[in-house]
Amino acid sequence: MEPQDQTAIVGSRVTLPCRVVNKTGALQWTKDDFGLGTHRNLSGFERYRMIGSDEEGDFSLEIYPVMLDDDARYQCQVGPGQAGEPGIRSKFATLTVLVPPEPPRIVQGDFLVTTEDREIELECVSLAGKPAAEITWIDGLGNVMTEGLDEIVEALPDGRRFTSKSILKLTPKKEHHNTTFTCQAQNTADRTYRSARLRLEVKYAPKVTLTITSGRMTEGAEVRLACRADANPLDLTYRWFINDELMAGDFTTEFIIPNISRRYHDAIVKCEVHNPVGKSEESETLDISYGPRFKTRPKSVQADQGTTVTLTCDVDGNPPPDILWIHEDTGKVVGTSVNLTMDVDKRTAGRYYCKAGVQGFHEIGAEATIMLKGKPTISSALVQFGIPGDNVRLECLAFSVPKPDHVVWTFKGNEVDASDKDYTILEDPLPEGIKSTLVIRESRDQHFGSYNCSVTNPYGSDTVEILLKAQKTFPLLLILVCVIGGVILIIAIAMIIILCQRREKKPQDCRDAEKQCKESDRSSNISDLKMELRTGSSVSNVHCELEYGPDSETGSESVVTRVGMPLAGPVAMPVNGGENIYRYSTEFTEPIFPPKDGQNNNGYVPYVDYSRDFNPPPPTTLGIESSRESLTMPNIDPRYSAAYGNPYLRNSSTSLPAPHATHNTHVSHAVGTPAPPPYTPATRNGAVPQVARLPHSPTTQYIVPNSQPTTVKRGTLATHV
């Protein structure tokens, strides 16, 4: 009979059986391969002895009382016999010694004062158990607490016993006041619970409620947090923290974070409220919604056929971004996770697009390529052209993964030597291959023909024949002539269009000028009328039919001169002999004339029409006694007056005298009658000289220049300026 594994509690009795039949050699027990002796009393080991009898062949090992040191491996051994019988050994038997834990202890003691809504930790410790003790927490209502527990097991220096710790994280409430929390500990060595108790006293600090009032928190928005406290007394002081950092500012019941960014995501905002009893706080973790942003962009890889590759597209966003992998060649979605693992072959090789999106934000994307390693493939044009005498470039474009080892150009069976002064070879690396350019300096006819381009990499090579042909040049002189002729033609067409547009605008300009003349006449004031003379616009002056007499001047410059010019002034009238007569307007009652030819001009009677139909009376001599010389003045009809056609220049109290009447009047300046302005004979701003009308003289008597006796000539008189 061989010993078996056993378990024993410290202080108990253990028997390890061992029976041997036909024993010839010496028998002993070993403990962890250390011999205990061959005698049954096992001297030196007071708690150990072999029980049974030799007759029965029973050599069982008894241990009492069991101690922790007895935890070991035991074996029953029989040595060789005197006649040469071989020795035998039993299998090892392991004795496991169990140790009950010490009574548990609460680190915070048996009484704790805390504040409502403030998280606390209660730690219960049970020492020297083998195996480690199991700790259970029970609240004041008899409920087993399973949440907020952290279990810690630590080995003692002897390596056999263990210390158990249980940390209870608790947020005290008002209901926990004066309740008792119990910590129980046990292991398999002692099924009787051992316990420790703690009574909790909760103070009623301000009861704080922290809420986010701004709704969904999106990057760039304004976040508002409201802190409300129910406390007694109500003498409250508020303080705000972000990740335990005190925020400056006069914040009380509301905390504002303008233009919030993603760095505030998962930040802890805490509102702390004080009153004379104590302080209380409430915290809120910010959940900021923000758009996707790459943490790791996918990178292109090169792989052999049959191997496995992984593309990574790590994107940060909140909520977590939705990721799609799209195979560009087929347009199919091939993955929806951060990593895309593919078996490489011709079907799976190609470009892959990673698209990441968060609802409410713009999508982002990046691409990577799985490049299948293989021999090069040349894709250059088989026929290329060059101009004799110029530098000619032959291009050999090759797709090659991995990069080509070398590129060889041959012409007429001979390899093109880069050291040849006629040739230069340029190589430009491409993302998926190479471009080799053969430059022929100052090409001649013998340089044209068939060239071979060979590209080689570790997986093979490819060769293509490129035919170089001479390209006929277009004469440079003919090109210049065509370009210059085209420019001249465009300029000519542009000038014609501009001239045509100017001609089309002339009638409209005339109508606008005529309208301006009429409106100016209607709104004029005899005392301070200001008129705009455009001396540089020949088109408007000619087509408005304003005749100023032979002395009128129109300049060629577009200069606008603004002069003060009363409408009631002398009007030049051409007479026989080329001499001019100057007349002065007066005030008279407007005669009523029927419309010309039955036409109605909306109350406006053009004076020019009537002046054509009127025959002036023969000239008479008017004697004027004054300081001036006597002047010869014709008998003038009042309808020749400038005030005749303008109702703004007439005085209703003045009667219209009979036509063709003549009077002799002495010129004198009556009191209250202003003297005429001292105009000089020279024209001012295009105006003709003016002379004063005699005071108290009839409307048909005027002062005319003494140096020019004139007669009246039928013609058109200008009454509007």
TrEMBL record:
InterPro entries: CD80_C2-set, Cell_adhesion_signaling, Ig-like_dom, Ig-like_dom_sf, Ig-like_fold, Ig_sub, Ig_sub2. The keyword Transmembrane applies. Coiled coil: none annotated. The keyword Protein biosynthesis does not apply. Residues 1-78, 104-199, 206-289, 292-356, 376-465 form the Ig-like domain. The chain crosses the membrane at residues 476-499. It comes from the Eukaryota. Keywords: Disulfide bond, Glycoprotein, Immunoglobulin domain, Membrane, Repeat, Signal, Transmembrane, Transmembrane helix. PANTHER family: IRREGULAR CHIASM C-ROUGHEST PROTEIN-RELATED (PTHR11640:SF31), NEPHRIN (PTHR11640). This is Ig-like domain-containing protein. It comes from Gryllus longicercus.
